[in-house]
């Protein structure tokens, strides 16, 4: 069982595994989760949702570091794809987005 407030760990019935801060019985503050699909997230939580600054490592090798809203890339962030391509700039609802503050986001390919 998880304390309503404080720090703790929990494995959910769907296979997700969370370790971090709790408030009022929900993930809230800072924490890390391994999702059942193999994705990993470490960062801010708000009322049980990955929201704020964080880092996602997807099971397919892609990674994202930046702002999220309810586990979706939303705000400013950088996504590096397993293919070597990367995008840094604005995101809205998990899709690349150019904003007035970021009129020309940078897209580049890296061949390591």
From TrEMBL:
The record ties this protein, via SUPFAM superfamilies, to: Histone H3 K4-specific methyltransferase SET7/9 N-terminal domain
Which region is the signal sequence? Answer: none
Q: Which residues does UniProt call coiled coil? A: none
Protein's name according to its UniProt entry: MORN repeat-containing protein 5
Q: Which UniProt key words apply to this protein?
A: Repeat
Magnesium as UniProt keyword: no
Q: Which Pfam families match?
A: MORN
